[in-house]
Amino acid sequence: MESLVKRIQAEGRSLKGGVLKVDSFINHQLDPNLMMEVGKEFVRLFGHLPINKIVTIEASGIAPAIMTGYLMQVRTVFIKKKQPNTLENVYASSVHSFTREQDYEVCINANFLTPDDHILFIDDFLAYGNTARCMIDLAHQSGAIIEGMGFCIEKTFQKGGEYLTEQGINFHSLACVTSLEHEHISVCEEPKSRFK
Ligand code: 5GP
């Protein structure tokens, strides 16, 4: 998605440890017009599939997910990062956090992820695929079917894409960061070879 690539070039910052900072339009401050465009792009890529639910994980996945959910007119549910005492009847899993370098527990109410669900999973970043792995685990537990996964930004040098390809997941990323070395951001649109 050209506008997202341009925004990353203009406002993104390369931090130590292969982290891309995009908090002026995705991770802290949000640009609703850009998020709506992201939603439209996900509809273009996945709209032909029998999706009846969007799933994301709090917090930064929620904005692109709700835009897509609105455009597809399907409910949108986010995986919670801690199990609150008020939640019973949940599917639980754990995720290794790339940015915090620790594991944390996540859960989703079993009423909101069922064998009737054909889901599109959406997140802000694909790095090593740990969050996607957690989604696959929750789908197995619940019997929900993953129709596809969409990421705003994929860091292709961190191998999450290879993992998803091995798993046979239909996934797309709207911008691909190929390197963050020497504080320089190399970013492009998703390669056409991804499209079958
Ligand atoms: P993964 O689970 O694929 O290893 O990493 C993806 C998750 O970690 C996303 O939910 C995202 O919030 C966070 N993440 C991974 N890499 C980055 C990054 O370079 N910048 C930011 N802001 N978040 C990242």
What's this, in brief?
By secondary structure, the protein is α/β, with parallel strands linked by helices. It has helices at residues 2-11, 32-46, 62-72, 130-142, 160-166, and strands spanning 13-15, 19-21, 53-57, 75-79, 90-97, 102-109, 118-126, 145-155, 171-179, 186-188.
Could you tell me the number of beta strands? 10
How many structural domains? 1
Between the first and last Cα atoms, what is the distance in angstroms?
18 Å
Q: What fold name goes in the CATH topology slot?
A: Rossmann fold
Ligands in the model, by name, code or SMILES, are:
guanosine-5'-monophosphate
Q: What's the number of helices? A: 5
Gross morphology: globular
Low-pLDDT segments: none
Class by SSE composition: alpha/beta
Q: What's the CATH architecture?
A: 3-Layer(aba) Sandwich
Explain how this protein is built.
- The protein is of the alpha/beta class and 196 residues long.
- It has one domain (2-194): 3-Layer(aba) Sandwich (Rossmann fold).
- It has five helices and ten strands.
- It has helices at residues 2-11, 32-46, 62-72, 130-142, 160-166; strands at 13-15, 19-21, 53-57, 75-79, 90-97, 102-109, 118-126, 145-155, 171-179, 186-188.
- The strands form three sheets. The protein has a six-stranded mixed sheet with strand order 4-3-7-8-9-10, sandwiched between helices.
- Helix 2 crosses helix 3 (62-72).
- The model has no long low-confidence stretch (mean pLDDT 95).
- Bound molecules: guanosine-5'-monophosphate.
- Guanosine-5'-monophosphate is lined by residues 19-20, 27, 60, 98-99, 123-131, 160.
Task: Give me some keywords for this one.
alpha/beta; globular; 6-stranded mixed sheet; binds guanosine-5'-monophosphate; 196 residues; two-stranded antiparallel sheet; Rossmann fold; 5 helices
